[in-house]
Fold:
Amino acid sequence: MSGTPSVSEICARVARLLHQRRIEQSLSMTRVAEGCGLSRQGISLLERGLRTPNLDTLLRITAVLEVDLADVIREASRRE
Structure:
């Protein structure tokens, strides 16, 4: 491969990016969880890469964060 990140690497990067966006917006995990109908623990597990979210969950989280999911995935997919 030409340095293309694996699926697991992309998932981990998406989680880090969502965490960064949440922190940049000064939003608590609780606020994001309430906004998208998840538990605070669920958000924590996702941000730490211990749980891989499905598409519905990603769309709900990015809606609360007001970021475009396609942009997050694109950024996570870039070679480092």
Observations:
- Residues 3 and 80 are 8 Å apart (CA to CA).
- The mean pLDDT is 93.
- Residues 7-77 form a domain with the 434 Repressor (Amino-terminal Domain) fold (CATH 1.10.260.40).
